[in-house]
Amino acid sequence: MAGRIKKTLAIALTPLIYRMLKVILVDDDPVTHFILENTFIDEAVEFFAYDSAEDLLENVGYFKNSILLLDVNMPKVNGLELWKHLNENYDISECKTVVFTKVVDVQNAFKKINNNLYFADKHSVDMKLITDINDGIK
After folding, report:
1. Which of 21, 52, 57 is nearest to 39 (CA)?
2. pLDDT tens-digit map of 73-118
3. Nearest Cα residue to 70 out of 81, 59, 61, 62
4. DSSP state letter for 94
5. How far apart are CA 67 and CA 98, in angstroms?
6. Is the pTM of this model over 0.85?
């Protein structure tokens, strides 16, 4: 009987594990960190926040099955330079990227490197947007 309970528990927990999203934020704005941490606190999300491109690159080895939230204006290495570096040095084919900009010229510069991304205002990011992007709706 104990084996059956374990099997049932494992089956019940499998959908929760499967739905766990990995969201990675790269932004030097502490307010954005605070807002998004609170947005995802009660959701099935593994949330990682980094203050800079350098901090991200020192701590993240892979981007598989993740959603990357990327600010454009950061000191030292900006979002566009980071996007170029990620495309040249990492397998980001299974990473969905959201860039925080509404400026068309900036969007086009990102698309020239790799157009597999989304654009949004950083303060409009919510669980619905993340879910839609993960599901390929946006």
Report:
1. 21
2. 999 999 999 999 999 999 888 899 999 999 999 999 999 999 889 9
3. 81
4. T
5. 7
6. no
